[in-house]
Amino acid sequence: MSSKGTEKTLQKLKKSVEDGNYYEAHQMYRTVARRYTKQEKYRDVIELVHSGAVSLMKAKQSGSGSDLAMYMIETYKLANTPVTEESLDRVAELLELYPSDEPGRKPFINNAMNWSQKNGDNEMGDAELHNFVGTIQYYEGNYGEAEKHLLFGTEESAQLLGDLEYDWSVKETSITKGVFIARAVMQLLAMKNIHYANLAFAAFAKRLDAAEKIGAVPYKPAPADDHINIPIYKDSLINFSQLLILTAQRDGADHFRSLKSKYSPAWSKENGFDFDEALSDFGLVFFNIQKPRNQGNVLQDLMSNLFGGPAPANAGGSRRVTGPSSTGTELD
User: Fold this and answer.
1) CA 237, CA 325: separation in Å to the nearest integer?
2) Spatial contact of 51 and 14, defined as CB atoms under 8 Å apart
3) Is residue 306 part of a domain?
4) Which GO terms describe its cellular component (predicted)?
5) How many folded domains does the chain comprise?
6) Which of 16, 21, 101, 147 has its CA 20 to 30 A from that of 154?
7) Residue 46 covered by a domain
8) In a domain, 266, yes or no
């Protein structure tokens, strides 16, 4: 609840924006916010600059609005504002108002994620915030940036990630579809998130044409279980992704080694993603198979790319993948 003084100031500044006095209003928002900050009235600062950012964004003054939005996040950090429904809603409201081409949007997203890492329950950043950002960027067709966030999101994010990988694979017609889903599955499994990997793969597979399936193959979920039939696809890396998820759900270190050996001709290091490194992470996480010395870490690479590291140039745009045909594969 804002004080009477703050409410009066808000009304005055909103009126200034409505009258088209954008520069004057922007400067006044900052002046009053600085005064409140010195007095450590952080709640009033947040309410003030959030309101100003919303008003200026709606008036198509995205540069000034973005400046106040960033001020809000910096105040979140200064006040150690916890990640709550209320604090996230403010961030989400501003993100919805940001034009996609506003230069300040990406720094705002990065700073909001950094705040949620330090003041929330998830060291990767708040999952709902990742989902919100990833969803926005997915529908804008910014698949590379969307993928980074959806990997750290919610169940809804995982399902959308499967759709994203399919849409991306259709767009990049010179690249086999399996590359896209394999990359997503391996990154989710590197975080030991079998459930999300399953959701992403199922959403991706649902989009495939019936002609892309070439039959079924028997598989034993566990040694004492009966065989089940799993679909087999023309694209070897789609099969690989499916089998890798299944292998993660059983005591299957030997099966993992066999799978890695069989499908290794189907990938190479492309555009900053290293399949061998990802599989080494998988082997360590699920079967305690030690990694080669001097090898990196997929999760660290993800974090670097997401929170300040350089994004791969033309991610996904120049991959070339060939692989063995997928016939007669049985893991039992």
Assistant:
1) 10
2) yes
3) yes
4) cytosol
5) 1
6) 101
7) no
8) yes
> Encoding tokens for residue 145?
């940036």
Q: What is the pLDDT along the chain (332 residues), one digit of tens a residue?
A: 456 667 888 889 999 999 999 999 999 999 999 999 999 999 999 999 999 999 999 999 999 999 999 999 999 999 999 999 999 999 999 999 999 999 999 999 999 999 999 999 999 999 999 999 999 999 999 999 999 999 999 999 999 999 999 999 999 987 889 999 999 999 999 999 999 999 999 999 999 999 999 999 887 776 677 888 899 999 999 999 999 999 998 877 888 999 888 888 887 655 557 888 889 999 999 999 998 866 666 666 666 666 654 333 333 333 222 222 333 333 33
Cα 167 to Cα 53, 85, 131, 205, 306: the distances in Å are 34, 31, 18, 12, 21
Quote the CA–CA distance of 323 and 303 in Å, as a whole number.
Answer: 30
Instruction: Tell the residue number behind the tokens 């600062």, with chain if given.
Output: 45
Domain that holds residue 212: 180-332
Residue 300 lies in a domain: yes
Dihedral of alpha carbons 150, 151, 152, 157, sign: positive
- Distance separating alpha carbons of residues 273 and 49, to the nearest angstrom: 40
CA-based diameter of the chain, in Å? 75
60: left (phi over 0), alpha (psi -120 to 50) or beta: left
